[in-house]
Amino acid sequence: MTSSQEPKEQDLPPTAWAVLGLLSFPGERTGYELKKWADSSLRFFYWSPAISQIYAELRRLEELGYAVSVRSGPEEARAKRRYAITDAGREALTGWAGDTAQAGPPVLKHGLLLRIWLGHLAEPERLRAMVTEHLDRTRAELAAVREAMEHAAEVREWAFPTLVLRWSERQHLAELELAAALLADLARAAPQGAPAAREAQDPQDPT
Description:
It is a single chain. The protein is mainly alpha-helical. It has 7 helices and 3 strands. It has helices at residues 14-23, 31-39, 51-64, 87-97, 111-117, 124-153, 159-189, and strands at 29-30, 67-71, 81-85. A 3-stranded antiparallel beta sheet has the order 1-3-2. The longest helix is centred in the last third of the chain and has 31 residues, at 159-189. The protein is elongated and about 65 Å long.
């Protein structure tokens, strides 16, 4: 394996650190393999980058000397490029992972809640249906988290990803509880068969 140039210090976006983090575990991986792993781990507590983002960051990491790659030989039917972290990349990642001051607070972007916030524009039945659909999706995600936990528990090097997946399991269970409470709140706020709220009024207008 060869790197395109000497490593240099540079601020990187979270996507780059996430991809480098995937490379920090033993073994070499293709971009496709990194995407599959991100989908079965990162997405449960952070987000999963698109395959195009992964390849863009891999190119950036190679340019910085944080990753190296090698193309497969003629023994493989389809040529593949496999990536691995370098010593410089591991040193940079270790420094970034230990910098808790830059971690920042968790950011919640809940698409369903944004729509419930605009519930005065929707029929009560549609609001309840959206929450019910969310409950179904969350149960499916919880099952996927537990499947990933079982798989990760079989690999000694994945002890810490397993801990994070366990946290994600608890988070999904809490989300189910919160969504069920929201469904009950909606039933009290807009009983079954109640008409949709009329157009919002100026809070200063009593009519």
